[in-house]
Amino acid sequence: MSFVSSALSVSERVKSTTTSQYIWERLLSGRGSSQVDPMEIIKGGVRIDWLPFKGNFKGSSYHSLFPPPMRLFNAKVCEQFRNFITDTVVDWADAVVLAVWGRVGEVTSPLVVPLTVEPSKPRLCHDERFLNLWIKDLPFKLDHLSDLTRYVLPGHYQTTFDEKSG
């Protein structure tokens, strides 16, 4: 089975922010909610609140406290984007956006999350619908334009971009 046609076993992680933690503390002062503290995530990583799930997913019934070991396969559209997926995974690993544990079947992982590609851009996505059935939803609020004045000082510039759209 090829690297691309098999699902990837990955552990996503946030880049280390220890060298700029004081900047994050200043930027996030007073931010967060009763449910989510951004500094807690930066310092200690993402905490997962598991919920029992009882229901169906893709024709199979589940009733458990945690997701069972599962291997889900990539979407069929991935075959058309083999080189794109390989290049993207290598770029993400180089940028420490994710860590590749190894090829499926060669490493032990309780869950292998499938990949899919949004073909119109193209954009690589991982499909976490199965895993999300057991995870407590923790919504967060995105900043508004009016929030910029808190962290963009005179002489600073605010720039946004979309990697795929330019």
What does this protein look like?
The chain is α+β, with helices and mostly antiparallel strands. It has one domain (9-151). It has helices at residues 21-27, 38-44, 82-94, 129-132, 148-151, and strands at residues 9-12, 53-57, 60-64, 70-71, 98-102, 111-112, 115-118, 123-126. The strands form four sheets. It has a two-stranded antiparallel ribbon with strand order 1-5. The two termini are 35 Å apart.
How do the helices and strands line up, and which of them pair or pack?
Layout: E1 9-12, H1 21-27, H2 38-44, E2 53-57, E3 60-64, E4 70-71, H3 82-94, E5 98-102, E6 111-112, E7 115-118, E8 123-126, H4 129-132, H5 148-151
Parallel strand pairs: 4-6
Antiparallel strand pairs: 1-5, 2-3, 7-8
Care to give the gist of this entry?
The chain is α+β, with helices and mostly antiparallel strands.
SSE sequence, one letter per element: EHHEEEHEEEEHH
- Given the C-alpha coordinates, what overall shape results? globular
Give the percentage of residues in beta strands: 15-25%
CA distance, first residue to last residue: 35 Å
Q: What is the count of helical runs? A: 5
Question: How helical, in percent, are the residues?
Answer: 10-25%
The low-confidence parts are 1-19
Write down the overall mean pLDDT. Answer: 75
